[in-house]
Structure formats: structure tokens, C-alpha cells
Design goal:
Layout: E1 6-9, E2 11-13, H1 21-24, H2 44-47, E3 64-66, H3 79-86, E4 91-94, H4 99-107, E5 111-114, H5 117-127, E6 132-135, E7 140-142, E8 148-150, H6 155-163, H7 167-173, H8 175-188, H9 197-207
Parallel strand pairs: 2-3, 3-4, 4-5
Antiparallel strand pairs: 1-6, 6-7, 7-8
Length: 208
């Protein structure tokens, strides 16, 4: 996972509320076990409508999505976060998120930014003509018009995003401690390492 310290650029000024994971990525796309290509299916039903925002050249390649309340509700499919990432979205701004979607977004390097509805409304207006910047160092969302909105993020999740650490990265970062613990187990509990019952019985007999 790549480190995320700032996300700056155009934003899709959508604002739709109660967008569930089936809207983000329809169920028939879930047959795949890879992330590549899921961006083509992102918001498929919305893109079927003429003049939709996701196919508007003015917002092509935007790394930020501005949505409405309760974004990511519905099923727990991680494919929703995969699809957003595959279409280039690195942050979503909304008044609230589904807990499961928020967790999936974090694990896939997507920043879920919670702001009051008034701030979201303002950002939607700004995004129609200007870029937006999300800064994890200062925990702010800013605009060229000197708007400055602060947001909160779990400190652990913030650190992981800024350092580019997913679960695999976190485990590898503790490689020394893990190796030390496994060595201790080999010395004091050899049966865990896979010794045969016969060798354990012989060693037990010797000790008695």
C-alpha cells in the first residue's frame, strides 16, 4: 500500500446520500478475486444514465469523491473499496460512512473524511470549478478560496495511511519480535515446532 499524506486534485461533486455497496460495484462484478479492472464496473447503474458525473470529462481522473450521508452502506463487500481504488479515487468526503466500508477503505489506502453537511455542501460547490486538498498531516480539507475544514481520524489508521502500512506491512514491521518469539517456542515448547510424539516421549522419559 502506498503512503498517503495528501490527496489533492479535482473532486466528483456528487453528494448523493445512502449510496450502498451495490451501487458502488454491482453484485455481478464480484466473481473476480482481483482488483484490476473493477473500476470499469464502479457506479455502473449511475453511469448508465445520460450526463452522469462519472463520465463527465470535466472530472475525469478525479482522486476525490464527495458523497452524501451514509456512504458505503449495505453489504460488507471489500470489492467496493477495490473498485474505487481502481478508478483512481484516493479519498471520499461525506457526512458519515458505513463502519464496514470505512474499515475496508482504510485497509485499501482510501481516506474516509467525515465532515458536517454544511462543509460537504460548500466543497461540492467549490469542486465544480476548483481543486481540493486533503492533508493528513494537519487533518484539514482546504480550497483555493481559503476554506479550511478540520476532520478527525483514528490515530492508528492515520499512521497506517501515512506510512503505507496494511495488515501485511504491519506484520512485516514486527518481524524481529516475531522471530524472537518463535525461537523461544522452539526452545521451550518443541512439540509446537512439529517434533514427533515418540521423540517427545523419549525426552520426557529422560527427564523422569
Amino acid at each position: 500500500m502506498e503512503p498517503v499524506r495528501t490527496v489533492s486534485g479535482k473532486a466528483y461533486p456528487w453528494g448523493a446520500k445512502n449510496i450502498d455497496t451495490d451501487v458502488i460495484i454491482p453484485a455481478h462484478w464480484l466473481k473476480t478475486i482481483t482488483r484490476a479492472g473493477l473500476g470499469r464496473g464502479a457506479f455502473e447503474t449511475v453511469r448508465a444514465q445520460p450526463g452522469n458525473i462519472f463520465d463527465d470529462p470535466a472530472y475525469a481522473g478525479s482522486p476525490i469523491l464527495i458523497a452524501g450521508d451514509n456512504f458505503g452502506c449495505g453489504s460488507s463487500r471489500e470489492h467496493a473499496a477495490w473498485a474505487l481504488g481502481d478508478m483512481g479515487i484516493k479519498a471520499v468526503i461525506a457526512p458519515s460512512f458505513s463502519d464496514i466500508f470505512s474499515g475496508n477503505a482504510f485497509k485499501n489506502g482510501i481516506v474516509p473524511v467525515v465532515l458536517p453537511q454544511e462543509a460537504v455542501d460548500r466543497l461540492i460547490e467549490v469542486a465544480k470549478t476548483q481543486e481540493i486538498t486533503i492533508d493528513l498531516e494537519t487533518m484539514t480539507v482546504t480550497t483555493p478560496f481559503q476554506d479550511r475544514f478540520t476532520f478527525e481520524l483514528d490515530p492508528f489508521r492515520r499512521q497506517c495511511l501515512m506510512e503505507g502500512l496494511d495488515e501485511v506491512g504491519l506484520t512485516l514491521a514486527r518481524d524481529t519480535a516475531i522471530s524472537k518469539y518463535e525461537t523461544m517456542l522452539d526452545e521451550h515448547r518443541p512439540w509446537i515446532a512439529g517434533e514427533t510424539n515418540a521423540s517427545i516421549a523419549v525426552e520426557g522419559a529422560r527427564r523422569t
